[in-house]
Amino acid sequence: MAAQIINGKALSAEHLAGTQEAIIKFKARGIVPGLAVIIVGENPASMKYVANKEKICQSIGIYSRIIRMPAHTPQAEIETTIRQLNEESAIHGILVQLPLPPHLSTLRLLSLINPAKDVDGFHYQNSGKLFYGLPSLLPGTPKGVHEMIKSTGVTIAGKDAVVVGRSNIVGKPMAIILMNEDATVSVCHKLTADLKAYTSRADILVVAAGKPKLITADMVKPGAVVIDVGITYVDGKVVGDVDFQAVSEVAGFITPVPGGVGRMTVAMLMANTVEAAASIEAERLSSLG
Ligand code: GUN
After folding, report:
1. Cis upstream peptide for 99 (omega within 30°)
2. CB 141 less than 6 A from any atom of ligand 1
3. Is the pLDDT of residue 1 over 80?
4. Which atom of ligand 1 lies at the shortest distance from residue 96's CA?
């Protein structure tokens, strides 16, 4: 039987609608949630992602400021920009688009962002909170994948979950989110000796390897939830890591590419910006006494 498609387009639209409602309430109190995005250099994929974030901000009423810096910008100049944004009351969320040019220290820049404004959830204070299962700003992609899994109605607790990819942006936080939900989690990567041995016993399979058609039908457990985080451009078309046609004959639920996880990532960023604005404004009110 063909798998049910987890429709990222429809699910992200639902989340954006909820976020937009929250923004309307904020605006009634004279507060406009604001997001600053720093992009260094002209990586074509990054430029596309940033343009999309700006468009979605505008469509739901978030104030957005894109700060474009040339590829050779010195580390100190970007640090100064982040410090200024940390202090600015119109900005509730700060995001540094990755990857950065090689002369820059990504970790140092990310750890300079005020953790309360860290809408990507990449600051070690937020990843530390995730590690301990405390409420925190969560990275958009794994947060979106979690929402997609929940939308299937499949129980996560007690299931075998396999995450393919161990990046700081997707794989690691995804594994922790699933562990915090009481799944039994395996994390595979490019040196995993027998990938199929892991993937074929996964009830929940999240693939974030960046390798087109890495996951074939024989590697998937019948009825599994398969989430494809891959985004690779092949002949001008975007493709995922999962052989969608073949795997959808085996899986119970599957995400398409495009129209899957990518849209959820942006929707979660918007939700995080509003969540950050709510915490910052509540803190500001309580400090006024
Ligand atoms: N580059 C690829 N994905 C992301 C993301 O989620 N956040 C940022 N800042 N950069 C990225």
Report:
1. yes
2. yes
3. no
4. 9
Instruction: From 40, 107, 118, 98, select the one nearest 74 (Cα to Cα).
Output: 40
Q: What is the CA(286)–ligand 1 centre distance, in A?
A: 33
56 CB under 6 A from ligand 1? no
Out of 111-120, 174-183, 184-193, 277-286, least confident range: 277-286
**Whether the CB of 91 sits within 6 Å of ligand 1:** no
Measured in angstroms, how far is the CA atom of residue 49 from the centroid of ligand 1? 8
Query: Is the separation of the CB atoms in 17 and 265 below 8 Å?
Result: no
Please list the active-site residues: 53, 97, 120
Ligand 1 within 6 A of CB of 120: yes
Q: Which residues contact 163 (CB under 8 A, 6 or more apart)?
A: 171, 174, 175, 178, 185, 186, 187, 188, 206, 208
Q: Which residue of 39, 66, 98 sits with most ligand 1 atoms within 8 Å of its CB, as the best mutation to test the pocket? A: 98
Q: What is the pLDDT of residues 14-66, one digit of tens each?
A: 999 999 999 999 999 999 999 999 999 999 999 999 999 999 999 999 999 99
Q: What does the alpha-carbon distance between residue 131 and residue 110 come to, in Å, rounded to a whole number? A: 18
What confidence tens digit (pLDDT) does each residue in 268-278 have?
999 999 999 99
Q: Stretch 129-155: mean pLDDT, rounded?
A: 98
Burial environment of residue 216 by CB neighbours within 10 A (0 to 12, 13 to 18, 19 or more): middle
What does each C-alpha distance from 253 to 42, 97, 240 come to in angstroms? 36, 31, 15
**pTM exceeds 0.90, yes or no:** yes
